[in-house]
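User: Teach me something about this protein's shape.
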Amino acid sequence: MSSLTAEVITRKSAGIEEMKALYTEAFPKEERVPLWILFWRAQIEGVEFTGFYEEGSLVGFTYTISYGDLTYVFYLAIHSTVRSKGYGSKILQSIEGRHPANRLSLEIEDPEQPAANSGQRRRRLAFYRKNGYEPTGYKTVEGSTTYMMMGKNGPHTREEHATLMEHFSGLLLRRMFKPKFVR
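Assistant: First, the predicted structure itself:
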């Protein structure tokens, strides 16, 4: 594996169609925020839409939101042809390198809930634990899916996560991105 390069993703990025295809393949429809919203909100301070490339080929992308000293990994997607080859860990390290003083958080589908993809959910939990993330003890619900919140570099509260999401969503989209905590 050679070194990865990171580039800001915009509507006009080279390879945007490949990124859109990865977004569609990596996330179920109910978890996908419309791309126009992601591009629009990526213009505010603290929001980063980043593509990761190796030798000019898209390996994956992230969408992160930072507010204060908390960085939330909203999306992390790795191209199916290179999954389980260390790229996800390298990309998480890149996020940490860009935000060295920040606490980090993310959500995964709750591996404790019965689901058709329960094996995938357990592997995802193991992956993030291997990379230093631990369950925070609280969960959120969106639609019919329960998510487990995970964090690294120190705890964060529900209120801090809600404030970060309010910063991201603004007044117009606040209802769409208001976390519903279940514990």
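Now, about its shape. The longest strand covers residues 57-67. The beta strands are 5-8, 47-54, 57-67, 70-78, 103-109, 134-142, 145-152. If you'd like, I can walk through any region in more detail.
User: That's plenty for now, thanks!
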